[in-house]
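If you are new to this repository, start here. Below is one unmodified record pulled from the training split, so you can see the exact layout before writing a loader.
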Amino acid sequence: MVALQGLDASLLGLLGLLIGSFLNVVIYRLPVMLEARWQAECADMQGKNLPEKAPFSLLVPRSRCQSCGHQLAWFENIPVLSYLVLRGHCRHCQAGISLRYPLVELATGLLFLWCGWQWGATATGLAWCGFCAALVALGMIDWDTTLLPDDLTLPLLWAGLALAALQLGSVTLNDAFWGAVGGYLSLWGVYWAFKLVTGKEGMGYGDFKLFAALGAWFGWQALIPIILMASVIGAVVGIAMKFSKNLREGGYVPFGPFLAGAGLTALLAGPSAMLQAVGL
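And here is the target side for that same chain:
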Protein backbone atom coordinates (compact mmCIF):
# COMPACT_ATOMS: atom_id res chain seq x y z
CA MET A 1 0.00 0.00 0.00
CA VAL A 2 2.79 2.39 0.94
CA ALA A 3 4.71 1.44 -2.23
CA LEU A 4 1.65 2.17 -4.38
CA GLN A 5 1.13 5.46 -2.55
CA GLY A 6 4.75 6.39 -3.18
CA LEU A 7 4.44 5.47 -6.86
CA ASP A 8 1.34 7.64 -7.28
CA ALA A 9 3.05 10.52 -5.51
CA SER A 10 6.19 10.19 -7.65
CA LEU A 11 4.23 10.09 -10.89
CA LEU A 12 2.20 13.13 -9.91
CA GLY A 13 5.40 14.89 -8.84
CA LEU A 14 6.85 14.33 -12.33
CA LEU A 15 3.59 15.53 -13.85
CA GLY A 16 3.83 18.61 -11.64
CA LEU A 17 7.26 19.45 -13.03
CA LEU A 18 5.84 19.34 -16.55
CA ILE A 19 2.79 21.36 -15.57
CA GLY A 20 5.07 23.85 -13.84
CA SER A 21 6.95 24.34 -17.10
CA PHE A 22 3.65 25.04 -18.84
CA LEU A 23 2.62 27.41 -16.04
CA ASN A 24 5.66 29.55 -16.84
CA VAL A 25 4.19 29.95 -20.32
CA VAL A 26 0.74 30.76 -18.91
CA ILE A 27 2.15 33.32 -16.46
CA TYR A 28 3.89 35.22 -19.25
CA ARG A 29 1.50 34.79 -22.17
CA LEU A 30 -2.01 34.91 -20.69
CA PRO A 31 -1.80 38.62 -19.68
CA VAL A 32 -0.45 39.47 -23.14
CA MET A 33 -3.29 37.54 -24.77
CA LEU A 34 -5.87 39.27 -22.58
CA GLU A 35 -4.48 42.70 -23.39
CA ALA A 36 -4.64 41.89 -27.12
CA ARG A 37 -8.23 40.70 -26.67
CA TRP A 38 -9.23 43.90 -24.88
CA GLN A 39 -7.58 46.03 -27.55
CA ALA A 40 -9.47 44.14 -30.25
CA GLU A 41 -12.77 44.58 -28.40
CA CYS A 42 -12.17 48.32 -27.95
CA ALA A 43 -11.24 48.69 -31.62
CA ASP A 44 -14.37 46.77 -32.62
CA MET A 45 -16.56 49.06 -30.49
CA GLN A 46 -14.98 52.08 -32.16
CA GLY A 47 -15.36 50.58 -35.64
CA LYS A 48 -11.60 50.35 -36.16
CA ASN A 49 -9.54 47.57 -37.65
CA LEU A 50 -6.31 46.56 -35.92
CA PRO A 51 -3.35 45.46 -38.07
CA GLU A 52 -2.87 41.72 -38.47
CA LYS A 53 -0.45 40.19 -35.98
CA ALA A 54 1.37 36.89 -35.90
CA PRO A 55 -0.50 34.13 -34.04
CA PHE A 56 0.13 34.27 -30.31
CA SER A 57 -1.38 31.80 -27.85
CA LEU A 58 -0.34 29.46 -25.07
CA LEU A 59 0.95 27.03 -27.72
CA VAL A 60 2.12 29.29 -30.56
CA PRO A 61 4.87 30.36 -31.10
CA ARG A 62 7.26 27.89 -29.50
CA SER A 63 9.26 29.02 -26.48
CA ARG A 64 12.30 31.12 -27.27
CA CYS A 65 14.95 33.20 -25.53
CA GLN A 66 13.56 36.63 -24.71
CA SER A 67 16.96 38.23 -25.31
CA CYS A 68 18.05 36.87 -28.70
CA GLY A 69 14.92 35.10 -29.97
CA HIS A 70 16.64 31.69 -30.13
CA GLN A 71 13.94 28.99 -30.40
CA LEU A 72 14.41 26.49 -27.61
CA ALA A 73 15.04 22.86 -28.53
CA TRP A 74 13.25 20.11 -26.62
CA PHE A 75 16.32 19.39 -24.48
CA GLU A 76 16.40 23.04 -23.40
CA ASN A 77 12.86 22.73 -22.06
CA ILE A 78 13.30 19.89 -19.59
CA PRO A 79 11.94 21.19 -16.25
CA VAL A 80 14.64 22.20 -13.74
CA LEU A 81 17.27 19.94 -15.34
CA SER A 82 17.77 22.13 -18.42
CA TYR A 83 18.28 25.18 -16.21
CA LEU A 84 20.95 23.36 -14.20
CA VAL A 85 22.74 21.97 -17.28
CA LEU A 86 22.72 25.37 -18.99
CA ARG A 87 23.77 27.00 -15.69
CA GLY A 88 20.99 29.53 -15.95
CA HIS A 89 22.03 30.96 -19.32
CA CYS A 90 20.78 30.83 -22.91
CA ARG A 91 22.77 28.28 -24.93
CA HIS A 92 22.83 30.67 -27.92
CA CYS A 93 23.55 34.16 -26.52
CA GLN A 94 24.51 33.37 -22.90
CA ALA A 95 21.91 35.81 -21.56
CA GLY A 96 20.83 35.02 -18.01
CA ILE A 97 17.63 33.02 -17.45
CA SER A 98 15.50 34.01 -14.47
CA LEU A 99 15.73 31.66 -11.50
CA ARG A 100 11.96 31.99 -11.22
CA TYR A 101 11.38 29.51 -14.06
CA PRO A 102 12.88 26.45 -12.33
CA LEU A 103 11.44 27.58 -8.98
CA VAL A 104 7.90 27.59 -10.41
CA GLU A 105 8.53 24.14 -11.90
CA LEU A 106 9.96 22.80 -8.66
CA ALA A 107 7.22 24.30 -6.49
CA THR A 108 4.51 22.84 -8.72
CA GLY A 109 6.22 19.45 -8.73
CA LEU A 110 6.43 19.40 -4.93
CA LEU A 111 2.80 20.43 -4.54
CA PHE A 112 1.69 17.68 -6.93
CA LEU A 113 3.91 15.23 -5.04
CA TRP A 114 2.21 16.18 -1.77
CA CYS A 115 -1.26 15.79 -3.30
CA GLY A 116 -0.26 12.38 -4.66
CA TRP A 117 0.94 11.27 -1.25
CA GLN A 118 -2.30 12.43 0.39
CA TRP A 119 -4.87 11.16 -2.13
CA GLY A 120 -3.01 9.14 -4.74
CA ALA A 121 -3.76 9.35 -8.45
CA THR A 122 -7.48 9.63 -7.74
CA ALA A 123 -10.06 12.13 -8.92
CA THR A 124 -9.68 13.97 -5.60
CA GLY A 125 -5.89 14.00 -5.85
CA LEU A 126 -5.96 15.28 -9.43
CA ALA A 127 -8.51 17.94 -8.48
CA TRP A 128 -6.23 19.28 -5.74
CA CYS A 129 -3.30 19.19 -8.16
CA GLY A 130 -5.33 21.43 -10.47
CA PHE A 131 -6.09 23.69 -7.50
CA CYS A 132 -2.37 24.05 -6.77
CA ALA A 133 -1.51 24.76 -10.40
CA ALA A 134 -4.17 27.46 -10.63
CA LEU A 135 -2.98 29.20 -7.45
CA VAL A 136 0.66 29.18 -8.56
CA ALA A 137 -0.30 30.76 -11.88
CA LEU A 138 -2.68 33.30 -10.33
CA GLY A 139 -0.21 34.37 -7.65
CA MET A 140 2.59 34.95 -10.15
CA ILE A 141 0.39 36.70 -12.73
CA ASP A 142 -1.00 39.07 -10.10
CA TRP A 143 2.49 39.83 -8.79
CA ASP A 144 3.68 40.69 -12.30
CA THR A 145 0.64 42.52 -13.65
CA THR A 146 -1.79 43.19 -10.72
CA LEU A 147 -4.27 41.10 -12.72
CA LEU A 148 -6.27 38.04 -11.63
CA PRO A 149 -7.79 36.74 -14.88
CA ASP A 150 -11.39 35.50 -14.94
CA ASP A 151 -10.05 32.76 -17.22
CA LEU A 152 -8.50 31.19 -14.10
CA THR A 153 -10.47 32.48 -11.08
CA LEU A 154 -13.93 31.52 -12.35
CA PRO A 155 -13.04 27.93 -13.39
CA LEU A 156 -11.33 27.55 -10.00
CA LEU A 157 -14.52 28.72 -8.25
CA TRP A 158 -16.78 26.38 -10.20
CA ALA A 159 -14.38 23.47 -9.77
CA GLY A 160 -14.50 23.90 -5.99
CA LEU A 161 -18.30 23.83 -6.02
CA ALA A 162 -18.29 20.81 -8.36
CA LEU A 163 -15.85 18.96 -6.09
CA ALA A 164 -18.23 19.48 -3.16
CA ALA A 165 -21.30 18.54 -5.21
CA LEU A 166 -19.64 15.28 -6.31
CA GLN A 167 -18.60 14.57 -2.70
CA LEU A 168 -14.96 14.20 -3.72
CA GLY A 169 -13.65 16.39 -0.92
CA SER A 170 -14.22 16.92 2.80
CA VAL A 171 -16.42 20.01 2.32
CA THR A 172 -20.17 19.74 1.92
CA LEU A 173 -21.90 21.56 -0.91
CA ASN A 174 -23.68 23.78 1.61
CA ASP A 175 -20.38 24.83 3.23
CA ALA A 176 -18.75 25.31 -0.18
CA PHE A 177 -21.62 27.45 -1.42
CA TRP A 178 -21.59 29.74 1.62
CA GLY A 179 -17.81 29.81 1.48
CA ALA A 180 -18.00 31.17 -2.06
CA VAL A 181 -20.71 33.69 -1.12
CA GLY A 182 -18.91 34.79 2.04
CA GLY A 183 -15.55 35.05 0.33
CA TYR A 184 -16.87 37.27 -2.44
CA LEU A 185 -19.13 39.51 -0.35
CA SER A 186 -16.61 40.06 2.46
CA LEU A 187 -13.94 41.55 0.18
CA TRP A 188 -16.59 43.30 -1.90
CA GLY A 189 -17.74 45.04 1.31
CA VAL A 190 -14.18 45.98 2.26
CA TYR A 191 -13.61 47.33 -1.25
CA TRP A 192 -16.61 49.65 -1.11
CA ALA A 193 -16.00 50.76 2.48
CA PHE A 194 -12.43 51.70 1.59
CA LYS A 195 -13.54 53.46 -1.58
CA LEU A 196 -16.24 55.48 0.22
CA VAL A 197 -13.79 56.59 2.92
CA THR A 198 -10.72 57.31 0.78
CA GLY A 199 -12.11 57.69 -2.74
CA LYS A 200 -9.56 55.11 -3.91
CA GLU A 201 -9.77 51.46 -4.92
CA GLY A 202 -7.92 49.28 -2.43
CA MET A 203 -8.18 46.04 -4.43
CA GLY A 204 -9.60 44.64 -7.65
CA TYR A 205 -12.60 42.46 -8.38
CA GLY A 206 -10.25 39.56 -9.11
CA ASP A 207 -9.45 39.40 -5.39
CA PHE A 208 -13.16 38.90 -4.61
CA LYS A 209 -13.37 36.03 -7.09
CA LEU A 210 -10.19 34.36 -5.86
CA PHE A 211 -11.34 34.53 -2.23
CA ALA A 212 -14.73 33.16 -3.29
CA ALA A 213 -12.94 30.27 -5.02
CA LEU A 214 -10.96 29.52 -1.85
CA GLY A 215 -14.20 29.55 0.11
CA ALA A 216 -15.68 27.04 -2.34
CA TRP A 217 -12.73 24.66 -1.93
CA PHE A 218 -12.34 24.90 1.85
CA GLY A 219 -15.80 25.94 3.07
CA TRP A 220 -16.90 29.07 4.89
CA GLN A 221 -15.13 27.96 8.09
CA ALA A 222 -11.72 28.54 6.49
CA LEU A 223 -12.38 32.11 5.33
CA ILE A 224 -11.16 33.84 8.50
CA PRO A 225 -7.88 31.86 8.78
CA ILE A 226 -7.14 32.41 5.09
CA ILE A 227 -7.82 36.15 5.09
CA LEU A 228 -5.92 36.68 8.34
CA MET A 229 -2.81 34.89 7.08
CA ALA A 230 -2.96 36.65 3.71
CA SER A 231 -3.34 40.04 5.42
CA VAL A 232 -0.53 39.50 7.92
CA ILE A 233 1.96 38.26 5.32
CA GLY A 234 0.87 40.96 2.86
CA ALA A 235 1.40 43.67 5.49
CA VAL A 236 4.86 42.36 6.39
CA VAL A 237 5.93 42.16 2.74
CA GLY A 238 4.46 45.60 2.00
CA ILE A 239 6.30 47.21 4.91
CA ALA A 240 9.54 45.49 3.91
CA MET A 241 9.16 46.72 0.33
CA LYS A 242 8.47 50.25 1.57
CA PHE A 243 11.58 50.39 3.71
CA SER A 244 13.68 48.87 0.91
CA LYS A 245 12.14 51.37 -1.53
CA ASN A 246 10.93 48.59 -3.81
CA LEU A 247 7.28 49.60 -3.85
CA ARG A 248 5.78 50.10 -7.30
CA GLU A 249 4.48 53.40 -8.55
CA GLY A 250 1.52 54.40 -6.39
CA GLY A 251 2.71 52.21 -3.50
CA TYR A 252 0.50 49.32 -4.64
CA VAL A 253 1.14 45.74 -3.50
CA PRO A 254 -1.10 43.10 -5.15
CA PHE A 255 -3.12 41.04 -2.68
CA GLY A 256 -3.65 38.02 -4.93
CA PRO A 257 -0.24 36.40 -4.28
CA PHE A 258 -0.90 36.42 -0.54
CA LEU A 259 -4.39 34.99 -0.97
CA ALA A 260 -2.91 32.27 -3.18
CA GLY A 261 -0.18 31.58 -0.64
CA ALA A 262 -2.72 31.39 2.18
CA GLY A 263 -4.82 29.00 0.09
CA LEU A 264 -1.85 26.69 -0.42
CA THR A 265 -1.05 26.91 3.29
CA ALA A 266 -4.64 25.92 4.10
CA LEU A 267 -4.16 22.87 1.91
CA LEU A 268 -0.82 21.86 3.42
CA ALA A 269 -1.34 22.73 7.08
CA GLY A 270 -5.07 23.20 7.60
CA PRO A 271 -7.05 26.28 8.73
CA SER A 272 -6.58 25.65 12.46
CA ALA A 273 -2.79 25.64 12.12
CA MET A 274 -3.03 28.92 10.21
CA LEU A 275 -4.83 30.55 13.13
CA GLN A 276 -2.06 29.44 15.45
CA ALA A 277 0.54 30.80 13.03
CA VAL A 278 -0.96 34.30 13.19
CA GLY A 279 -1.23 34.14 16.99
CA LEU A 280 -4.98 33.41 17.39
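Two things worth knowing about this chain: The radius of gyration is 20 Å. The first helix runs from residue 2 to 45.
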